[in-house]
Design goal:
The protein is of the alpha/beta class. It has two domains: 141 residues, no CATH class; 260 residues, no CATH class. 24% of the residues lie in helices and 22% in strands. It contains 13 helices and 19 strands. The chain has a seven-stranded mixed β-sheet with strand order 12-11-19-17-18-16-15. A hairpin with a 2-residue loop joins strand 3 and strand 4. The longest helix has 24 residues. The chain is globular.
Length: 478
Protein backbone atom coordinates (compact mmCIF):
# COMPACT_ATOMS: atom_id res chain seq x y z
CA UNK A 1 0.00 0.00 0.00
CA UNK A 2 1.16 3.53 -0.65
CA UNK A 3 2.11 6.37 1.66
CA UNK A 4 1.47 9.51 -0.33
CA UNK A 5 3.16 11.90 2.09
CA UNK A 6 5.53 14.32 0.40
CA UNK A 7 5.87 16.89 3.17
CA UNK A 8 9.18 17.10 4.98
CA UNK A 9 9.12 15.13 8.21
CA UNK A 10 10.64 16.73 11.31
CA UNK A 11 13.22 15.10 13.52
CA UNK A 12 10.70 14.48 16.27
CA UNK A 13 8.25 13.08 13.74
CA UNK A 14 10.40 10.29 12.41
CA UNK A 15 12.35 12.09 9.69
CA UNK A 16 15.87 11.36 8.57
CA UNK A 17 17.55 13.23 11.42
CA UNK A 18 16.41 10.59 13.91
CA UNK A 19 17.31 7.29 12.29
CA UNK A 20 16.86 4.14 14.31
CA UNK A 21 17.81 0.54 13.67
CA UNK A 22 16.31 -1.14 16.71
CA UNK A 23 13.23 -0.49 18.64
CA UNK A 24 10.99 -3.04 20.34
CA UNK A 25 7.26 -2.46 20.34
CA UNK A 26 5.47 0.70 19.28
CA UNK A 27 4.71 1.82 22.81
CA UNK A 28 8.38 2.50 23.51
CA UNK A 29 8.29 5.51 21.23
CA UNK A 30 11.29 7.15 19.60
CA UNK A 31 14.17 9.29 20.71
CA UNK A 32 14.78 12.16 18.33
CA UNK A 33 18.39 12.29 19.46
CA UNK A 34 19.08 8.64 18.67
CA UNK A 35 22.32 7.84 16.88
CA UNK A 36 22.29 7.46 13.08
CA UNK A 37 21.72 3.99 11.74
CA UNK A 38 24.73 2.07 10.46
CA UNK A 39 24.85 1.97 6.68
CA UNK A 40 24.05 -1.76 6.55
CA UNK A 41 21.04 -1.55 8.85
CA UNK A 42 17.42 -0.68 8.19
CA UNK A 43 16.31 2.80 9.17
CA UNK A 44 12.75 3.91 9.71
CA UNK A 45 9.87 4.82 11.97
CA UNK A 46 6.18 4.26 12.36
CA UNK A 47 4.79 7.78 12.12
CA UNK A 48 1.06 7.31 12.70
CA UNK A 49 -1.38 4.55 13.56
CA UNK A 50 -4.97 5.37 12.58
CA UNK A 51 -6.84 2.74 14.55
CA UNK A 52 -10.32 3.50 13.22
CA UNK A 53 -9.07 3.14 9.65
CA UNK A 54 -6.70 0.27 10.55
CA UNK A 55 -4.00 2.23 8.73
CA UNK A 56 -0.31 2.30 9.70
CA UNK A 57 1.94 4.93 8.13
CA UNK A 58 5.70 5.20 8.26
CA UNK A 59 8.92 4.69 6.39
CA UNK A 60 11.66 2.11 6.14
CA UNK A 61 14.84 2.10 4.10
CA UNK A 62 18.30 0.59 3.89
CA UNK A 63 20.65 3.57 3.50
CA UNK A 64 23.18 3.12 0.75
CA UNK A 65 21.22 0.26 -0.83
CA UNK A 66 18.56 -0.04 -3.52
CA UNK A 67 16.95 -2.94 -1.68
CA UNK A 68 13.40 -2.20 -0.50
CA UNK A 69 12.58 -3.90 2.81
CA UNK A 70 9.40 -5.80 3.57
CA UNK A 71 7.26 -4.39 6.38
CA UNK A 72 5.27 -6.77 8.59
CA UNK A 73 2.71 -5.74 11.21
CA UNK A 74 1.85 -8.14 14.03
CA UNK A 75 -0.78 -7.97 16.76
CA UNK A 76 0.06 -10.05 19.82
CA UNK A 77 2.31 -12.20 17.65
CA UNK A 78 -0.17 -12.67 14.79
CA UNK A 79 0.63 -11.15 11.40
CA UNK A 80 -2.10 -8.69 10.36
CA UNK A 81 -0.44 -6.80 7.48
CA UNK A 82 2.47 -7.25 5.10
CA UNK A 83 3.69 -4.88 2.40
CA UNK A 84 6.59 -2.91 0.98
CA UNK A 85 7.27 0.81 0.78
CA UNK A 86 6.02 2.20 -2.53
CA UNK A 87 6.40 5.97 -2.11
CA UNK A 88 9.58 7.94 -2.69
CA UNK A 89 9.83 10.53 0.08
CA UNK A 90 11.56 13.80 -0.86
CA UNK A 91 12.44 14.34 2.83
CA UNK A 92 14.41 11.08 2.82
CA UNK A 93 16.39 11.56 -0.37
CA UNK A 94 19.67 12.07 1.47
CA UNK A 95 19.15 8.56 2.87
CA UNK A 96 17.65 6.72 -0.10
CA UNK A 97 16.34 7.31 -3.57
CA UNK A 98 14.12 4.23 -3.67
CA UNK A 99 10.57 4.05 -2.29
CA UNK A 100 10.61 4.28 1.52
CA UNK A 101 7.15 5.46 2.59
CA UNK A 102 4.58 2.81 3.43
CA UNK A 103 0.90 2.72 4.37
CA UNK A 104 -0.43 -0.65 5.49
CA UNK A 105 -4.02 -1.56 6.30
CA UNK A 106 -4.37 -4.30 8.89
CA UNK A 107 -6.57 -7.36 8.42
CA UNK A 108 -7.97 -7.02 11.93
CA UNK A 109 -9.25 -4.22 14.13
CA UNK A 110 -6.67 -2.42 16.22
CA UNK A 111 -7.18 -0.03 19.12
CA UNK A 112 -5.20 2.79 20.72
CA UNK A 113 -4.72 0.46 23.68
CA UNK A 114 -3.02 -2.06 21.42
CA UNK A 115 -0.65 0.67 20.28
CA UNK A 116 0.15 2.06 23.71
CA UNK A 117 0.41 -1.33 25.40
CA UNK A 118 2.96 -2.53 22.87
CA UNK A 119 0.82 -5.30 21.43
CA UNK A 120 1.50 -4.07 17.89
CA UNK A 121 4.90 -4.73 16.38
CA UNK A 122 6.03 -3.30 13.04
CA UNK A 123 9.11 -5.00 11.61
CA UNK A 124 11.13 -4.13 8.50
CA UNK A 125 13.14 -6.94 6.97
CA UNK A 126 15.77 -7.09 4.23
CA UNK A 127 17.76 -9.95 2.80
CA UNK A 128 20.22 -9.99 5.70
CA UNK A 129 18.72 -7.89 8.47
CA UNK A 130 15.44 -7.36 10.29
CA UNK A 131 14.53 -4.65 12.80
CA UNK A 132 11.50 -3.42 14.66
CA UNK A 133 10.35 0.11 13.83
CA UNK A 134 9.57 2.46 16.69
CA UNK A 135 6.61 4.78 16.89
CA UNK A 136 7.57 8.45 16.79
CA UNK A 137 6.82 10.64 19.78
CA UNK A 138 4.20 12.45 17.72
CA UNK A 139 2.65 9.10 16.84
CA UNK A 140 2.54 8.13 20.48
CA UNK A 141 0.81 11.41 21.36
CA UNK A 142 -1.69 10.76 18.57
CA UNK A 143 -2.49 7.32 19.99
CA UNK A 144 -2.85 8.77 23.49
CA UNK A 145 -5.33 11.36 22.18
CA UNK A 146 -7.26 8.68 20.35
CA UNK A 147 -7.50 6.60 23.54
CA UNK A 148 -8.77 9.61 25.46
CA UNK A 149 -11.45 10.31 22.86
CA UNK A 150 -12.91 6.83 22.86
CA UNK A 151 -12.38 3.51 24.55
CA UNK A 152 -14.64 1.70 22.11
CA UNK A 153 -13.14 -0.48 19.36
CA UNK A 154 -13.65 0.76 15.82
CA UNK A 155 -16.69 -0.62 14.07
CA UNK A 156 -17.15 -0.97 10.34
CA UNK A 157 -19.83 0.37 8.09
CA UNK A 158 -20.46 -1.91 5.16
CA UNK A 159 -21.80 1.04 3.20
CA UNK A 160 -18.51 2.94 3.43
CA UNK A 161 -16.05 2.46 0.57
CA UNK A 162 -12.66 0.87 1.19
CA UNK A 163 -9.36 2.68 1.30
CA UNK A 164 -7.68 2.19 -2.03
CA UNK A 165 -4.01 1.51 -2.38
CA UNK A 166 -2.69 0.97 -5.92
CA UNK A 167 -1.39 -2.58 -6.22
CA UNK A 168 1.57 -3.55 -8.38
CA UNK A 169 0.66 -5.53 -11.47
CA UNK A 170 2.03 -8.80 -10.18
CA UNK A 171 -0.28 -8.73 -7.13
CA UNK A 172 -3.35 -6.88 -8.36
CA UNK A 173 -5.11 -9.98 -9.64
CA UNK A 174 -4.89 -11.75 -6.30
CA UNK A 175 -5.32 -8.86 -3.90
CA UNK A 176 -7.39 -9.58 -0.83
CA UNK A 177 -10.88 -8.17 -0.52
CA UNK A 178 -10.66 -4.52 0.57
CA UNK A 179 -11.37 -3.72 4.19
CA UNK A 180 -13.93 -1.16 5.25
CA UNK A 181 -13.24 2.14 6.96
CA UNK A 182 -15.32 5.00 8.28
CA UNK A 183 -14.74 8.49 6.93
CA UNK A 184 -16.43 11.78 7.73
CA UNK A 185 -16.38 15.14 5.90
CA UNK A 186 -15.38 18.35 7.70
CA UNK A 187 -15.53 22.01 6.65
CA UNK A 188 -12.34 24.03 6.31
CA UNK A 189 -12.04 27.63 5.14
CA UNK A 190 -11.17 28.02 1.47
CA UNK A 191 -7.63 29.31 1.10
CA UNK A 192 -6.29 27.51 4.20
CA UNK A 193 -2.64 26.73 3.47
CA UNK A 194 -0.39 23.86 4.44
CA UNK A 195 2.27 24.51 7.06
CA UNK A 196 4.94 24.87 4.37
CA UNK A 197 2.68 27.10 2.24
CA UNK A 198 3.07 24.80 -0.78
CA UNK A 199 -0.58 23.75 -0.95
CA UNK A 200 -3.97 25.26 -0.21
CA UNK A 201 -7.57 24.16 0.13
CA UNK A 202 -9.97 25.23 -2.59
CA UNK A 203 -13.71 24.86 -2.99
CA UNK A 204 -15.56 21.53 -2.83
CA UNK A 205 -12.78 19.92 -0.80
CA UNK A 206 -10.22 20.20 -3.60
CA UNK A 207 -6.58 20.49 -2.52
CA UNK A 208 -4.21 22.43 -4.79
CA UNK A 209 -0.46 22.64 -5.13
CA UNK A 210 0.44 26.34 -5.25
CA UNK A 211 4.18 26.35 -4.47
CA UNK A 212 6.83 23.73 -4.09
CA UNK A 213 10.11 23.43 -5.96
CA UNK A 214 8.44 24.65 -9.15
CA UNK A 215 6.88 27.77 -7.53
CA UNK A 216 3.71 26.83 -9.32
CA UNK A 217 1.71 30.00 -8.67
CA UNK A 218 4.53 32.07 -10.21
CA UNK A 219 4.05 30.23 -13.50
CA UNK A 220 0.85 32.21 -14.07
CA UNK A 221 2.79 35.50 -13.72
CA UNK A 222 5.16 34.92 -16.65
CA UNK A 223 3.89 37.22 -19.40
CA UNK A 224 4.84 38.89 -22.65
CA UNK A 225 8.18 38.26 -24.32
CA UNK A 226 9.34 35.84 -21.63
CA UNK A 227 6.32 33.58 -22.13
CA UNK A 228 6.74 33.79 -25.91
CA UNK A 229 10.42 32.86 -25.59
CA UNK A 230 9.61 29.66 -23.68
CA UNK A 231 6.92 28.85 -26.24
CA UNK A 232 9.40 29.38 -29.10
CA UNK A 233 11.85 26.97 -27.49
CA UNK A 234 9.14 24.35 -27.02
CA UNK A 235 7.90 24.75 -30.59
CA UNK A 236 11.44 24.26 -31.92
CA UNK A 237 11.96 21.21 -29.71
CA UNK A 238 8.67 19.63 -30.76
CA UNK A 239 9.48 20.21 -34.45
CA UNK A 240 12.93 18.66 -33.99
CA UNK A 241 11.50 15.61 -32.24
CA UNK A 242 8.82 15.19 -34.91
CA UNK A 243 11.35 15.44 -37.74
CA UNK A 244 13.68 12.89 -36.15
CA UNK A 245 10.82 10.44 -35.69
CA UNK A 246 9.52 11.00 -39.20
CA UNK A 247 12.92 10.07 -40.64
CA UNK A 248 12.68 6.74 -38.80
CA UNK A 249 9.03 6.10 -39.71
CA UNK A 250 7.88 6.61 -36.11
CA UNK A 251 4.58 8.30 -35.28
CA UNK A 252 5.43 11.10 -32.84
CA UNK A 253 3.09 12.72 -30.30
CA UNK A 254 3.93 15.59 -27.95
CA UNK A 255 1.55 15.68 -24.99
CA UNK A 256 1.26 18.51 -22.48
CA UNK A 257 -1.03 18.00 -19.48
CA UNK A 258 -2.38 21.15 -17.82
CA UNK A 259 -2.22 21.84 -14.11
CA UNK A 260 -5.11 21.17 -11.78
CA UNK A 261 -5.07 24.93 -11.06
CA UNK A 262 -5.69 25.58 -14.75
CA UNK A 263 -8.47 23.07 -15.34
CA UNK A 264 -10.28 23.48 -12.01
CA UNK A 265 -9.60 27.21 -11.69
CA UNK A 266 -13.18 27.94 -10.61
CA UNK A 267 -12.47 25.82 -7.49
CA UNK A 268 -8.94 27.12 -6.92
CA UNK A 269 -7.85 29.08 -3.83
CA UNK A 270 -6.04 31.55 -6.12
CA UNK A 271 -7.35 33.87 -8.79
CA UNK A 272 -6.55 31.95 -11.97
CA UNK A 273 -7.94 33.27 -15.27
CA UNK A 274 -6.91 30.45 -17.57
CA UNK A 275 -3.85 28.46 -18.58
CA UNK A 276 -0.46 29.91 -17.78
CA UNK A 277 0.78 32.37 -20.41
CA UNK A 278 3.48 29.92 -21.53
CA UNK A 279 0.95 27.15 -22.12
CA UNK A 280 -1.39 29.60 -23.84
CA UNK A 281 1.39 30.60 -26.24
CA UNK A 282 2.24 26.96 -26.98
CA UNK A 283 -1.40 26.18 -27.63
CA UNK A 284 -1.51 29.07 -30.08
CA UNK A 285 1.64 27.98 -31.91
CA UNK A 286 1.09 24.21 -31.86
CA UNK A 287 -2.65 23.76 -31.37
CA UNK A 288 -3.33 22.67 -34.94
CA UNK A 289 -0.19 20.58 -35.41
CA UNK A 290 -0.89 16.87 -36.04
CA UNK A 291 1.91 15.91 -33.64
CA UNK A 292 0.60 17.97 -30.72
CA UNK A 293 -1.82 16.41 -28.22
CA UNK A 294 -3.45 19.13 -26.17
CA UNK A 295 -4.41 17.92 -22.72
CA UNK A 296 -5.89 21.37 -22.15
CA UNK A 297 -8.26 21.05 -25.09
CA UNK A 298 -9.24 17.52 -24.14
CA UNK A 299 -9.95 18.33 -20.49
CA UNK A 300 -11.78 21.54 -21.46
CA UNK A 301 -14.40 19.26 -23.00
CA UNK A 302 -15.00 17.54 -19.66
CA UNK A 303 -18.68 16.79 -19.07
CA UNK A 304 -18.68 14.23 -16.23
CA UNK A 305 -19.81 14.97 -12.68
CA UNK A 306 -16.55 13.83 -11.07
CA UNK A 307 -13.69 16.31 -11.71
CA UNK A 308 -10.76 14.95 -13.75
CA UNK A 309 -8.30 15.52 -10.89
CA UNK A 310 -8.34 13.73 -7.55
CA UNK A 311 -9.49 15.94 -4.64
CA UNK A 312 -6.40 15.30 -2.50
CA UNK A 313 -3.87 14.93 -5.31
CA UNK A 314 -2.26 16.87 -8.15
CA UNK A 315 -2.89 13.99 -10.56
CA UNK A 316 -5.82 12.64 -12.53
CA UNK A 317 -8.72 10.51 -11.40
CA UNK A 318 -9.33 7.23 -13.18
CA UNK A 319 -12.02 8.97 -15.25
CA UNK A 320 -9.65 11.83 -16.04
CA UNK A 321 -6.93 9.44 -17.21
CA UNK A 322 -9.49 7.43 -19.17
CA UNK A 323 -10.71 10.60 -20.88
CA UNK A 324 -7.20 11.61 -21.99
CA UNK A 325 -6.26 8.09 -23.02
CA UNK A 326 -9.47 7.70 -24.98
CA UNK A 327 -8.61 10.79 -27.02
CA UNK A 328 -5.02 9.60 -27.45
CA UNK A 329 -6.03 6.10 -28.56
CA UNK A 330 -8.55 7.53 -31.02
CA UNK A 331 -5.71 9.54 -32.53
CA UNK A 332 -3.70 6.32 -32.96
CA UNK A 333 -6.49 3.99 -34.08
CA UNK A 334 -9.91 5.30 -35.10
CA UNK A 335 -12.62 3.63 -33.02
CA UNK A 336 -10.27 2.68 -30.19
CA UNK A 337 -11.30 5.68 -28.13
CA UNK A 338 -14.87 4.43 -28.03
CA UNK A 339 -13.72 1.07 -26.69
CA UNK A 340 -11.58 2.72 -24.00
CA UNK A 341 -14.56 4.82 -22.92
CA UNK A 342 -16.62 1.68 -22.41
CA UNK A 343 -14.60 0.61 -19.39
CA UNK A 344 -16.98 1.17 -16.48
CA UNK A 345 -15.56 3.32 -13.69
CA UNK A 346 -18.23 3.02 -11.01
CA UNK A 347 -16.57 1.38 -7.99
CA UNK A 348 -16.02 3.87 -5.18
CA UNK A 349 -12.94 3.70 -2.97
CA UNK A 350 -11.32 5.98 -0.41
CA UNK A 351 -7.84 7.04 -1.42
CA UNK A 352 -4.74 8.79 -0.17
CA UNK A 353 -3.17 11.44 -2.42
CA UNK A 354 0.12 13.28 -2.83
CA UNK A 355 -1.34 16.26 -0.91
CA UNK A 356 -2.99 14.15 1.82
CA UNK A 357 -0.34 14.72 4.49
CA UNK A 358 0.52 18.38 3.91
CA UNK A 359 -2.13 19.98 6.11
CA UNK A 360 -2.84 18.05 9.31
CA UNK A 361 -1.50 15.21 11.40
CA UNK A 362 -4.36 13.11 10.05
CA UNK A 363 -4.19 12.47 6.29
CA UNK A 364 -6.95 13.93 4.13
CA UNK A 365 -8.69 11.08 2.33
CA UNK A 366 -10.87 11.35 -0.76
CA UNK A 367 -13.60 9.29 -2.37
CA UNK A 368 -12.78 8.42 -5.97
CA UNK A 369 -14.10 6.02 -8.57
CA UNK A 370 -12.12 3.15 -10.10
CA UNK A 371 -12.91 0.51 -12.77
CA UNK A 372 -14.92 -2.55 -11.88
CA UNK A 373 -12.64 -5.37 -10.66
CA UNK A 374 -14.10 -7.87 -13.11
CA UNK A 375 -13.36 -5.57 -16.04
CA UNK A 376 -9.82 -4.99 -14.78
CA UNK A 377 -9.31 -8.76 -14.66
CA UNK A 378 -10.32 -9.04 -18.31
CA UNK A 379 -8.00 -6.22 -19.37
CA UNK A 380 -5.13 -7.89 -17.51
CA UNK A 381 -5.83 -11.43 -18.68
CA UNK A 382 -2.73 -11.61 -20.90
CA UNK A 383 -0.84 -8.63 -19.52
CA UNK A 384 2.77 -9.18 -18.44
CA UNK A 385 5.17 -6.79 -16.76
CA UNK A 386 8.43 -7.88 -18.35
CA UNK A 387 10.78 -5.24 -16.93
CA UNK A 388 10.76 -3.02 -13.86
CA UNK A 389 13.85 -0.90 -13.27
CA UNK A 390 14.37 1.85 -10.69
CA UNK A 391 17.48 4.03 -10.48
CA UNK A 392 19.45 4.20 -7.25
CA UNK A 393 18.08 7.68 -6.57
CA UNK A 394 15.26 9.83 -7.84
CA UNK A 395 12.66 9.20 -10.52
CA UNK A 396 14.48 9.93 -13.78
CA UNK A 397 15.62 6.70 -15.36
CA UNK A 398 12.77 4.62 -14.01
CA UNK A 399 11.55 2.15 -16.62
CA UNK A 400 8.65 -0.27 -17.04
CA UNK A 401 7.87 -2.55 -19.98
CA UNK A 402 4.57 -4.36 -20.43
CA UNK A 403 3.46 -6.77 -23.14
CA UNK A 404 -0.14 -7.58 -23.88
CA UNK A 405 -0.53 -9.76 -27.01
CA UNK A 406 -4.32 -9.50 -27.08
CA UNK A 407 -4.49 -5.74 -26.54
CA UNK A 408 -6.91 -3.67 -28.57
CA UNK A 409 -4.21 -1.52 -30.16
CA UNK A 410 -1.51 -3.69 -31.72
CA UNK A 411 1.28 -1.15 -31.54
CA UNK A 412 4.61 -0.83 -29.78
CA UNK A 413 4.57 2.47 -27.91
CA UNK A 414 7.28 4.33 -25.98
CA UNK A 415 6.44 7.17 -23.59
CA UNK A 416 9.17 9.48 -22.30
CA UNK A 417 7.10 10.91 -19.51
CA UNK A 418 6.66 11.75 -15.82
CA UNK A 419 4.29 10.98 -12.94
CA UNK A 420 1.16 11.54 -15.05
CA UNK A 421 2.06 8.34 -16.86
CA UNK A 422 3.58 6.95 -13.67
CA UNK A 423 4.36 3.35 -12.83
CA UNK A 424 1.04 1.97 -14.03
CA UNK A 425 -0.12 0.70 -10.66
CA UNK A 426 -3.39 2.64 -10.54
CA UNK A 427 -5.99 3.70 -13.14
CA UNK A 428 -5.35 7.39 -12.50
CA UNK A 429 -2.06 7.03 -14.40
CA UNK A 430 -1.79 6.96 -18.17
CA UNK A 431 0.63 4.02 -17.99
CA UNK A 432 -2.15 1.92 -16.45
CA UNK A 433 -4.30 2.44 -19.55
CA UNK A 434 -1.37 2.19 -21.96
CA UNK A 435 -0.24 -1.16 -20.56
CA UNK A 436 -3.72 -2.61 -20.95
CA UNK A 437 -4.52 -1.27 -24.42
CA UNK A 438 -1.17 -1.38 -26.27
CA UNK A 439 0.46 -4.62 -27.42
CA UNK A 440 3.76 -3.40 -25.98
CA UNK A 441 4.30 -0.33 -23.86
CA UNK A 442 7.51 1.17 -22.49
CA UNK A 443 7.46 3.82 -19.77
CA UNK A 444 10.73 5.78 -19.60
CA UNK A 445 10.61 8.36 -16.80
CA UNK A 446 12.65 11.11 -18.43
CA UNK A 447 11.94 14.62 -19.76
CA UNK A 448 14.49 14.00 -22.52
CA UNK A 449 13.91 11.73 -25.50
CA UNK A 450 16.78 9.25 -25.30
CA UNK A 451 17.73 8.18 -28.82
CA UNK A 452 20.14 5.60 -27.40
CA UNK A 453 17.16 3.84 -25.86
CA UNK A 454 15.61 3.47 -29.31
CA UNK A 455 18.85 2.02 -30.61
CA UNK A 456 18.93 -0.54 -27.78
CA UNK A 457 15.26 -1.53 -27.69
CA UNK A 458 14.35 -1.10 -31.33
CA UNK A 459 12.07 1.37 -33.05
CA UNK A 460 8.53 1.80 -31.69
CA UNK A 461 5.47 2.39 -33.80
CA UNK A 462 4.65 5.41 -31.66
CA UNK A 463 6.79 7.68 -29.52
CA UNK A 464 5.09 9.91 -26.95
CA UNK A 465 6.89 12.76 -25.21
CA UNK A 466 4.85 14.03 -22.26
CA UNK A 467 5.27 16.89 -19.86
CA UNK A 468 3.07 18.88 -17.51
CA UNK A 469 2.37 22.61 -17.38
CA UNK A 470 4.53 23.22 -14.28
CA UNK A 471 7.65 22.08 -16.18
CA UNK A 472 7.20 24.36 -19.19
CA UNK A 473 9.93 26.69 -17.95
CA UNK A 474 12.37 23.75 -18.11
CA UNK A 475 12.85 23.03 -21.81
CA UNK A 476 14.63 19.70 -22.42
CA UNK A 477 17.63 19.63 -24.72
CA UNK A 478 16.26 16.85 -26.91
Amino acid sequence: MTDSSEAATTQQDGGPQGLTDTGGTLARGSDSASAPTEISKIAGYVERVFTKERLILGWAAIPGSTEIPTVTVSLAGKTIAVGRPEKIRPDLQRITGVPAGFALMTDEDITPSDVLAGRIEVRASGESTSVQLRLTDAGKRHATSALAESTQPSGHDAGTPPIAAPQPLETSKKAASPKQTKVSPVLVATGFQSKDATAAIGRDGQLFLIGGSNNLADLYEIHGDRAAEFADHWSALIASRANSCALEGIDFIQMIIPEKLTVLRELAPLEIHGPSPVLREIETFMGQSPVYFSGLRSLSEWEQSEPPYRPNDTHLTATGAQHLFSALSERLQPGAGTEVSRVNIDTQVVSLGDLSHRFFDTPILAKVMVPRPEEVALLEKNLELVLSHDPATGFIGRRRIWRNPTALIQKKVYAFANSFFGEGSNPGSLSWWSARFFAEFHLIWDPEVDNDYLDREGKPDVLIAQTVERFLTRVPKR
